[in-house]
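User: Hey, my collaborator sent me this sequence without any context and asked if I could get a structure. I don't really work with proteins. Can you help?
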Amino acid sequence: MDAYLLFGHILRCKLVPKLQQHENLFKGANRRFSKVPWNKMEGRKLERPRTETAWGKRVEKEEERRASRAEKLKALGYEYDVPKMAAPVAEAREPEAAGTIEDGAGAAEGDKAPAAGEVANGEPDSHVVGKTKAPRKPKGKKAAKGKKVEA
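Assistant: No problem. I've predicted the 3D structure and written it out in structure-token form, which is a compact way to encode the shape of the chain:
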């Protein structure tokens, strides 16, 4: 295709010797491109429960931000009383990790939620204990090549 006219421009092609080619020039050439789900990964990160220390740090940062904004408003001539942040409240959902706010770390012994595999009255919950994942089914051409079962 050397000297080929392409969109009003002449295309110039040259053969690059092996010694001048970068070692990773064709790295990953025989693989299909897969997009990294950055939004989904970040969403999962945001959904994770926070520890009390992490919440404390977030509250401190927010108080600093509010104080700096109040100072800027005061310099402009506006009087603004910064409201204090409330302490983090434990949500009423099942605990996901030990030491988190959601598991009621500071709650009384009788106030704690039942452990996984246990009902509120202390009896084991059979459908949670024996729960397993079903094997994935192949998609595409491999699904059609499955083993035939004789009746």
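In plain terms: Residues 42 and 48 are 10 Å apart (CA to CA). You can pass these tokens on to your collaborator as they are.
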